[in-house]
Amino acid sequence: MREHAVVIGSVVPVAGALCLPEDASPGRPVGALLLIGGSGADTRDGDLVIERAAGPIPGVPGTLRRIAHHLAHHGVATLRWDRRGFGQSGGDGDAVNVGYHTDLIDAMACFRWMQARPEIAPTRIGAAGHSAGALVTCRLCREFPEVAAAGLLGALSSPIEAMLAWNVARIHDRWETFTDDQREWLEREMPATLVRHEHMGAVLDAARRGDERVVVEGRGLRLESPTTRLRQDLDTDYAAEMQAVTQPALVLHGGDDLNVPVADALRSYRVLRDAGNDDVELVILPGLEHYFCPTPPDPEQRIWERITRESVLPPMAPGALDAIARWAVRTLGGA
To answer: CA 265, CA 26: separation in Å to the nearest integer?
Structure first.
């Protein structure tokens, strides 16, 4: 495996990592996947920057890095990058003009860059998006029909309000059943999360009004954030976006995903098939969460680890990595 730091010219410089199989060369170009992170992936590795972690446990599942390195050993190249405004990429990630539309612009620039690389076969480049990155993948397929394959990993296909309500209710509905120590821990270590959950209705109202920023206050905190992505979420029919995916597709979901319900994977599969795509793999892996890390068997412990983000600490399950590799090798070629 060979990995190189690269900079791609988009509206702003986009910094990332090109990961190549050891024997990839101009004389032996290989298939490749563009890896697109979701809302929890600020960096090329698929991590939140520490400043945006929900609590003392950082968002460091390293999902995209793990996928890239696994695929390299199966003969498939990858490109992943720091989201605009984070890591070594240019721009301001908190600007009101940054959202899914700029993610798509940068993804398009990265795809074109990959097409020009001599070690990569230009007709065998696919894209795989995790979580909200799946939306960008669908839109990339719409803009570039030459995308060779599309992976939708932990993808949302239902309205964003339903997902937010499901997630926000998790703490509220269980507050009285938590132990005193658990409540004290949440109040001490995750006050910002509690405030955002308590004011989610106001945040949604601000986004629906078209306010560019929203401010919520509570527990001694004043939190201000742009509403760009949320406004775009509210205006998006996620299932309809998937109809743009006519390429061979993989729908991969953790059976214990507590961020995006597993029912969304079934809906995604049905939407793709009903739109006429007859090459869709549906893989649901029991015992894995949103980042494809193993979860504990006890449901209450599983929920607590999701709330505290402990669930992202175990390494990505080999079964998930193997499912992606098998599909990528079949659709793009590889070892």
So the answer is: 38
Nearest to 115 by CA among 74, 147, 90, 92: 147
Judged by DSSP in three states, 17 sits in: strand
> Which of these, 43, 308, 18, lies nearest to 181 by C-alpha position?
308
Residue 176: how many CB atoms within 10 A of its CB?
7
Give the separation between CA 163 and CA 135, rounded to whole angstroms.
15
Q: How far apart are CA 282 and CA 57, in angstroms?
A: 32
Task: Indicate whether 31 and 150 sit together in one domain.
Answer: yes
Q: What is the tens place of the pLDDT at every residue in 257-311? A: 999 999 999 999 999 999 999 999 999 999 999 999 999 999 999 999 999 989 9
Check if the beta carbon of residue 14 is closer than 8 Å to that of residue 41.
Answer: no
pLDDT in tens, 181-236: 999 999 999 999 999 999 999 999 999 999 999 999 999 999 999 999 999 999 99
174, 204, 232 — which closes off a domain?
232
Choose among 264, 298, 310, 311: nearest CA to 284: 264
Secondary structure class of 251 (helix, strand, coil): strand
Asked if 280 and 274 touch (Cβ cutoff 8 Å), the reply is no
User: Is residue 44 located within the same domain as residue 128?
Assistant: yes
CB 221 within 8 A of CB 198: no
The b-or-e profile of 257-281 (16+ CB within 10 A means b, else e) is: bbbbbbebbebbbbbbeeeebeebb
Please give the residue range of the domain that contains residue 222: 161-232
Number of domains in the chain: 2
3-state secondary structure 123-182: EEEEEEEECCHHHHHHHHHHHCCCCCCEEEECCCCCCHHHHHHHHHHHHHHHHHHCCHHH
pTM of the model: 0.96
- Do 166 and 267 belong together in one domain? no
Alpha carbon dihedral 177, 182, 188, 194, in 10-degree steps, equals -40
- Parallel, antiparallel, or unpaired for β 213-218 and 2-9? unpaired
CATH of the domain at 46: 3.40.50.1820
The residue among 232, 254, 288 that closes a domain is 232
